[in-house]
């Protein structure tokens, strides 16, 4: 457990600060969306259809980022769209990590029949294109945020399991693991006190990457209509604006830019976090 006690080298860790700042901002926006949004995200105004952003000619200061084809305020819809994105990102990535890491450790440490069974299940899931599997699942269960979260879990746990399994297989042959087993330390204690701290850095990197993938999956499934129709989502905004790309490109540009910024920030955050918790990178 010594590696868990290392102090985070926060000074000079610009990636961690940048990514953490954007993630914190996302959480605050999701919480404060009802107070930050200038309008109701579902309120329609046919007199204000496809208004450009306020700094463009013909823009309205009451609609800072413009409006969509139904006259709904784009800024308000983006702010409220952080709520389903945050829910899918955190819940989907956390559940994927929990399932994948647990199965990966079992398969890598115990080997034999346990490894064979888990590996066959892993191969079955990885044989299907991830997004196709998510779409089929969403079509079977029906639309809704819970469906999107389950789709993220179904396609995300395999990455954790495959990587952690390989890491554990390499670790269990190390001298300190063999010494722990030789003195009679129980398997659960070996896993918790010796193996888990050493796979923590790669787990945190995978978790950060999975959060970024979860945002993209949520946007894709929302785009094709498998998210809740009563909730403003970034993918739903893109779907609504694709028919008006020639006359109102800002409806598409705004949510796409937000998604890109979020994914890049999460990647930076997980890179910085790995540097903070990995003693090898610290040296």
TrEMBL record:
Highest rank taxon of the organism: Bacteria
Biological process (GO), any one: transmembrane transport
Membrane topology according to the record: Multi-pass membrane protein
Keyword terms: Cell membrane, Membrane, Transmembrane, Transmembrane helix, Transport
UniProt-listed Gene3D superfamilies: MetI-like (1.10.3720.10)
Entry's localization field: Cell membrane
Chief location category: membrane
InterPro entries, A to Z: BP-dependent_transpt_permease (IPR050366), MetI-like (IPR000515), MetI-like_sf (IPR035906), OppC_N (IPR025966)
Keyword presence, Lipid metabolism: no
One Gene Ontology cellular component annotation held by this UniProt entry: plasma membrane
Matches recorded under PROSITE patterns: ABC_TM1 (PS50928)
Residues annotated as signal peptide: none
Record-annotated ABC transmembrane type-1 domain positions: 82-270
Segments traversing the membrane: 16-37, 85-111, 131-157, 190-209, 215-237, 249-269
Protein family per UniProt: Belongs to the binding-protein-dependent transport system permease family.
Official protein name in the record: Peptide/nickel transport system permease protein
Organism listed in the record: Pusillimonas noertemannii
């Amino acid at each position: 457990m010594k590696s868990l006690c290392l102090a985070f080298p926060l000074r000079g860790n610009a990636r961690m600060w940048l990514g953490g700042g954007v993630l914190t901002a996302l959480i605050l926006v999701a919480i404060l969306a009802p107070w930050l949004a200038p309008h109701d995200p579902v309120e329609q105004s046919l007199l204000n259809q496809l208004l450009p952003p306020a700094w463009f000619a013909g823009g309205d200061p009451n609609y800072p980022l413009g409006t969509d084809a139904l006259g709904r305020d784009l800024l308000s819809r983006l702010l409220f769209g952080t709520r389903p994105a945050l829910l899918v990102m955190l819940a989907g990535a956390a559940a994927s990590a929990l399932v994948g890491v647990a199965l990966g450790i079992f398969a890598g440490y115990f080997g034999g029949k346990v490894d064979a069974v888990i590996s066959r299940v892993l191969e079955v899931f990885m044989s299907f294109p991830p997004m196709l599997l998510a779409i089929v699942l969403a079509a079977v269960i029906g639309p809704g945020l819970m469906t999107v979260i389950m789709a993220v879990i179904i396609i995300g746990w395999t990455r954790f399991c495959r990587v952690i399994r390989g890491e554990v297989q390499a670790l269990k042959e190390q001298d300190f693991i063999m010494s722990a087993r030789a003195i009679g330390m129980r398997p659960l204690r070996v896993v918790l006190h010796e193996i888990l701290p050493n796979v923590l850095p790669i787990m945190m990197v995978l978790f950060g990457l999975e959060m970024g993938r979860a945002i993209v999956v949520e946007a894709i499934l929302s785009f094709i209509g498998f998210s809740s129709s009563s909730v403003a989502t970034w993918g739903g905004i893109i779907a609504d604006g694709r028919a008006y790309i020639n006359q109102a490109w800002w409806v598409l540009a705004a949510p796409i830019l937000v998604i890109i910024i979020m994914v890049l920030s999460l990647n930076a955050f997980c890179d910085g976090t790995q540097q903070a918790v990995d003693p090898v990178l610290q040296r």
